[in-house]
Design a protein that fits this description.
This protein is an alpha/beta fold. It contains ten helices and twelve strands.
Length: 267
């Protein structure tokens, strides 16, 4: 594929990449920005649920990324520029020298997302996760331990935020998900699909290591601090991770990794 050289940061062809941090806050109408070679490899892989709309690369990186560029559809332009031009376009020093503009997958229903999963599937369901680092960590853990999907309630932050994608090392781009769910309706749908809802909460009497694996499992996670609402916990089997030293909670990303290992190891 031929690359297109950009010699001025005001070139209208790269408008979607301009002032990235400001655009992160205002949204991109169904598009997202991904950065770095690892994420670009996921975005252009067969496993990706998203597709690149355009690439913007440091001129010096283009030759080394020839294999990745070859996987990009011909309809998606590949732009190259010198580092100072890249920095002016992005609005900050882009030390990785790799950006991609991608399109989010179309919306999915809870029923359609859960239906193809197997009888021993594990899914992650998050309520009120507002930190993008934690969101990225949840998706990274879900991919690492083979969770079938990630379900997000309507109060969760956007997993396609640039930092969340980067922290997830691209897992956001390949993991089946449903966003914007009502928590109660989400539990209803999980129940109809045969999932046992397991709420992770420090106040639980049952320790995680004594929780058996029984068919389909949905791991329900809430934010650090307030945790899951009591009305949600009451509808689930509550389990906790025993801790010492007076601590009563873990970072939600860490907690999800421990719980996912427990349930997927028993599968």
């Amino acid at each position: 594929m031929a690359v297109i050289r950009i010699d001025h940061p005001d070139d209208p062809r790269i408008a979607g990449f301009r002032d990235i941090r400001e655009r992160d806050l205002t949204g991109r109408q169904g598009l997202f920005v991904a950065e770095g070679e690892v994420v670009l490899n996921v975005l252009t892989s067969p496993q990706s649920r998203c597709r690149p709309v355009a690439l913007l690369l440091d001129q010096k990186r283009a030759e080394g990324l020839a294999g990745v560029i070859a996987r990009v559809d011909a309809a998606a332009p590949v732009y190259v520029a010198d580092q100072p031009i890249l920095d002016a376009i992005a609005g900050f020093h882009l030390h990785r020298g790799i950006l991609a503009l991608g399109r989010k997958p179309g919306p999915a229903t809870l029923e359609d997302c859960l239906a193809p999963l197997g009888p021993d599937a594990v899914v992650v369901a998050a309520c009120g996760i507002g930190n993008h680092d934690n969101m990225g960590g949840l998706f990274r853990n879900a991919a690492a331990f083979g969770a079938g999907a990630v379900l997000l309630d309507r109060t969760c932050c956007d997993p396609f935020y640039r930092k969340a994608i980067r922290v997830s090392v691209g897992a956001v781009l390949r993991t089946p998900m449903v966003m914007g769910l009502d928590p109660s309706a989400m539990l209803d749908g999980l129940g109809r699909a045969g999932f046992t809802a397991v709420a992770l909460t420090p106040g639980a009497e049952t320790p995680l290591h004594r929780m058996p694996r029984e068919g389909r499992v949905a791991l329900i996670l809430g934010p650090e601090g307030p945790g899951l609402p009591q009305e949600i916990i009451a509808r689930c089997r509550a389990v906790g991770i025993p801790m010492s030293g007076g601590f009563d909670s873990l970072n939600v990303s860490v907690a999800s990794g421990i719980a996912l290992h427990h349930f997927t190891r028993q599968a």
